[in-house]
Amino acid sequence: MSFKVAERRIWDATTTLEALGAAEVALWHWEPEADRLRINGAARALGLSPLAPECSSAAFRALALPQDRAQAEELLRVREAGAEIVVRLRMRSGGVCIWRGVWLEEGVRAAGVIAPEVKFAASGKDELTGLLDRRSFIARARERLTHDGVHELVVADLDRLRRLNEALGHERADLVLAALGSRLAAAFPEGSILGRIGEDEFAVLCEPKGYEPAELLRTALEQPLRIAGFDIHPTLTIGAVSAEGGEDAPEAAELVRRAELAVEAASANGRGSAAAYGRSMETDGLSRLALEADLRGAIGRGEIIPYFQPVVRLSTGALSGFEALARWIHPRRGLLPPDEFLPLIEEMGLMAELGEHMMRSAGKQLAAWRRSHPAVGALTVSVNLSTGEIDRPGLVHDVAQVLAENGLPRGALKLEVTESDIMRDPERAAVILKALREAGAGLALDDFGTGFSSLSYLTRLPFDTLKIDRYFVRTMGGNAGSAKIVRSVVKLGQDLDLEVVAEGVENAEMAHALQKLGCDYGQGFGYAPALSPQEAEVYLNEAYVDGAAPVKARG
């Protein structure tokens, strides 16, 4: 065999991709005319697996964090041949990556390389917190695990970092992360290995002697913070794993994987939970991978459908409409609640597709009910816009099309937008909301009272409905602060001539209290959970015959 033949065999495409994967680097290739972005290499390690091996520009934009959408657009923008590209992007399912490349032919294609920011920075420290970055943390942990003794690795995931980014802005949210890094460094004894191993993940490897690492970490980091005039109350979801050091110690990267698996298991129990790694979690991890595979195409196959929760006029008990909520009828596992699949849909960049599907399906169902029950009058259906969907190209056109195709009047289809989504860019939001209103959509501001909105903006935005977050409604009976917030929002709605809907109504007593305050509408388990289309029609028939929707005496 000649040297040249051997060389060609060594450097074949498979070997090249294996080398890229080992180096945590990927190649990208963008063809705007075909609307195709190809990614080869370490896609999973870089948090890009939902995009690999190829995707559309819409999927790419959806995976980028909302505050980095401008950089994503910059990467896709057509330039002249030879123009260089350098973009810093944070993706929903990964860390910070640098995309570098060049336009090879004007307007035809561009190509380049993707690598973690730290590879370009050549630093072992996280710039924001001063803690070790993921690579350096694993390297130091690998060395420490060679020592005999019991070692404990604790990984803490900061809950709702995305919400903080949206509400405070990236720069202020970074101040929160920096403060938590400082607290972590001060809390643990000298010799502990401390790192920030993900955008919202902190890690500690130590030899626990006289203290419980997970509790020490929680005590240190869950103290309130005041940032830019706002009180922040951090909560953590924690995973922990123990290992014997020495010759038979597990590989450090494997130990981190186990701790992160424990974090995922803890998150299933809600924010602020904790879990210790167990072998049973490995099966859960495989189950998650299977669920991800099943999700691809689930929307197109009609497996994800709207369920409908009644919205009731409090003064008369009459059914006013429904809120459409996504449910997955899995072919093998049956009905799956949203918390089991919505996070995966978001990670996979499918939220825009789901949002359009929900709007069209709910609009079609509403039109059918209006035709078969002409006496129901102004029955409405509300659909939630997912985070960032307000910026989706074609949203206004889709709304107008749904109304026209189904013969629905103005206001019959309501779109619910979260407060934090509006406050990311209030000026741009005002323009889009006005266009949606002109297209015929009703507009509701969801979860009002949980964010950081300015009342001056509220008076300028074309909302017709305020929705009070269920937490305040459920706790207003025993929490003076919640009662004041509910009363204030109802009064604000009256002053601004907006309808007010209270979520989380669990019984007749709560409904009566809200009615006395002047609240217009209520929804919650006191009336009904989210119902299948068939169950919702039965509920509609009963409410029509009885003249009022039934409400539980006690929750």
TrEMBL record:
GO molecular function: cyclic-guanylate-specific phosphodiesterase activity
Domain called EAL: residue spans: 288-544
A Pfam match: EAL
Sequence ranges assigned to domain GGDEF in this UniProt record: 149-279
InterPro entries documented for this protein: Cyclic-di-GMP_PDE-like (IPR050706), EAL_dom (IPR001633), EAL_sf (IPR035919), GGDEF_dom (IPR000160), Nucleotide_cyclase (IPR029787), PdeA-like_PAS (IPR048820), Rev_trsase/Diguanyl_cyclase (IPR043128)
PANTHER family named among the record's database cross-references: CYCLIC DI-GMP PHOSPHODIESTERASE PDEF (PTHR33121), SIGNALING PROTEIN YKOW (PTHR33121:SF70)
Family matches, as NCBIfam families: GGDEF
Protein known as: Bifunctional diguanylate cyclase/phosphodiesterase
Source organism of the structure: Caulobacter radicis
